Amino acid sequence: MKTLSQFVPIALAAVMGGALACGGNSSGPGKQAASVTGVAGDSQVGPTGAPLDFPLSMTLLGSNGQPVEGVAVKWSAVPTNGASFNPQPSVSDVNGIATTAVTIGSVLDTIVIKATVPGVAQPVVYHALAVDPCLFARRYTFGATVNGVLSTVDCNAGGYYTDLYAVSFAAQTGVTVNMTGNFDTWIDWYHDNGTALELIGFHDDIAPPGNLNSRFQAVLAAGDYILAPNTANAGVTGTYQITSSARAERASGCGELWVTRGVILADSIAAADCPDTTGVGSYGDSLKIVVRTGTVLKVAARSATVNTRLALFRVIFKAPPAPDSLVLAASNDDSLPGTTTDAFVSYTAAQTALYIIFAGTTGTGQTGPYTLDISSSTTLNGAARSMATRRTRAGALPQLPTELELRRH
Q: What would be the CATH architecture of the domain defined by 15-131?
């Protein structure tokens, strides 16, 4: 997989600095300044075709050191198509502040922006780095509301326009993410392992065909993740809203719940859980997980109350309107036959696919607590792979994976 070798910050806060340049005079045409201070907005990073997170601004002072109102500042970029400005020119207000919003152009490069201030000998210089929108994520604070817009300048992932938001969890966390929009919405969720993005879950419609909003629910191990709101249909644009909240770290009824490696659930088998269609038990919990080619998935179910049983199914996607099907990949009743109520599955995936972990019982009508442990190890020898990415600072995104067959079917 191709990755970005050069470090790029996800987003930089506006940098405050001072820039002082004298030598102008007040005899020229229009109002002039004698110096500039309070420069803000330098050294930002943004995706091509999108506005920078922070406007560029400065404070203009007269020869008496007081703010000057009404000075027209002209903006330019090198290369010339590297950025556009609004307003252009910008006129300083009563506090001497001149500001403009910058939209990055189509050039993947460092953009040099100059602000020419009447009366000041040298232009004020800013820099912005324009990056591929598929290699850029804005920092997202879990629990916040995002009002976004999908447009043709956004990341194009296999024909589907998508925005990318980076969110991190210091500990195992249960999450619910809702997406509403003026189109048929879709949520993808990735794990950022530092060198690649791994698709770990997705959701389309809350209640098709009427409710086309999306709701992603998961229990995630500690680590860095990418939330990617997009569309169910290729080439669609429009406005959307994202909200998120914490949820219980357990399955609830027979609702959809995604999990990752490294997750431990303290759960319970209940009569409201999913029916056991295998005919072994009455009901159990159903969990979704993506397993990649050549990796080993190890799952343990332990209980002193019920006799646990594990079944692992591979999902076979079929073209609508045909329903998807399940193939039994592995199952286990007793990890030590005849001596325990615990169950254990170790499975090596022959292909990257979506799997269902079904945690049930070996007898009908059994209810009670159990613990489900999904190992962080990806190998038979038990060497664990941490979900955390051990970065000392935020970094650029690797390229989006091409595992679209897991989500577009």
A: Sandwich (2.60)
What is the pLDDT, as a whole number, of residue 381? 75
Is 65 within 8 Å of 103 (Cβ atoms)? no
CB 349 within 8 A of CB 291: yes
Instruction: Determine contact, residues 199/138, Cβ cutoff 8 Å.
Output: no
Spell out the domain ranges in the chain: 15-131, 135-250+398-406, 261-374
Beta-strand runs (E) in 173-304: 173-181, 185-192, 197-203, 214-220, 223-231, 238-246, 258-259, 264-269, 274-275, 283-291, 296-302
CA atoms within 13 A of residue 235's CA, in its CB half-sphere:
0
CB 263 within 8 Å of CB 219: yes
Q: Per CATH, is 135-250+398-406 categorized as 2.60.120.380?
A: yes
DSSP summary character for residue 337:
T
As to burial, measured by CB atoms within 10 angstroms (0-12 exposed, 13-18 middle, 19+ buried), residue 143 is exposed
Block means of pLDDT (10 residues each) for the chain, 409 residues, are 35 36 45 96 94 96 96 97 97 98 94 97 96 92 96 91 95 98 95 88 87 96 96 95 97 93 97 90 95 95 94 89 90 78 95 94 93 93 49 48 48
Distance CA 205, CA 189 (A): 15
Q: How far apart are CA 192 and CA 194, in angstroms?
A: 6
Given this chain, do its domains 135-250+398-406 and 261-374 carry the same CATH topology? yes
Would you state the CATH architecture of domain 261-374?
Answer: Sandwich (2.60)
Residue whose structure tokens are 């993808």: 188
Burial of 90 (0-12, 13-18, 19+ CB in 10 A): buried
Q: CA nearest 106: which of 50, 44, 43?
A: 50
**In degrees, to the nearest 5, what angle opens at C-alpha 318 toward C-alphas 313 and 321?**
125
Tokens of 178: 């809702």
